[in-house]
Write a structure and sequence with these properties.
Blueprint: H1 2-20, H2 23-37, E1 51-54, H3 61-68, E2 77-79, H4 82-87, E3 101-104, H5 112-115, E4 122-127, H6 130-143, H7 150-153, H8 158-162, H9 173-179, H10 190-203, E5 207-210, H11 214-225, H12 249-258, H13 260-277
Parallel strand pairs: 1-3, 1-4, 2-3, 4-5
Amino acid sequence: MQIQSQIFNQILGKAQNWKNNTDAENTVINLKYLKENVAELSQITVHTTPWVFSHIPKTAGTSLENYLIQPFELKDVLHVNAPDLNRLPQVIHLKNKYPNLIMGHHPIHGLLYQLLPKIRFVHLTMLREPVSRIVSYYNYLATRDYHVLHSQIKDLSFDSFLKQDNLVEIHNGQSKRLTGYLHSEVNISDNDLYFKAKEVVDNCFTIVGVTEYFKEFCHVLEKQCGIIFNKLPPVNRSQRKIQLTDLRAEHRKSIEENNKVDIQLYQYVKSKFEKIINH
């Protein structure tokens, strides 16, 4: 009990330091940690723990979580999103040890990366084609009454939805989540944002997949780690208020204009992943 109490105090101290820092400062700290500790794909096994899945919203991450959990015992798995971890950081060590699998929504400047041990670990995420992702995000917010943004979005047309300034996910949300700018008011050029995001993809993750190659992503992990995933149906699919085929030209133009970096980054990640599966 005394040792666990000491560990909790250390965790609380790290959490307080994180709170005292700016997002930019935490991003620098976290990127340094990730570059030093993330394992390369060729190095990993199911025992290269912890495995950390940083879930970008509306990229089929919930479905992927149901695969990633399979090689691990439930007692060794922690699902926690950043806001909950910020409120109760001790959960990272609640069972007297770090979990073998950690999953949830965590931006790159998040607290999680300052609580993890300094050991080699597996870091995963997945991107999605931006137009499809934003359509899915609209359907999700508009039809899930438990979401904090539901009341704002439920009665909005898709046109009005695209004009909402406070929705960080629809303005290069994937790139900004990966670079610490998701909630930042700092002006950054598209060019700088892209190259920062590309650097993170290349140096801070074991592998980055794309939703359109979901099965192939799972197969890469199976092949590398010598595991077999039980095939499961997709989960967390939203009811559809609008479909891709419903989009007008101005809808696509608006999304593409506001997500130039996400589109460029997605194309890069997709091409990089295709090289892995075709190797």
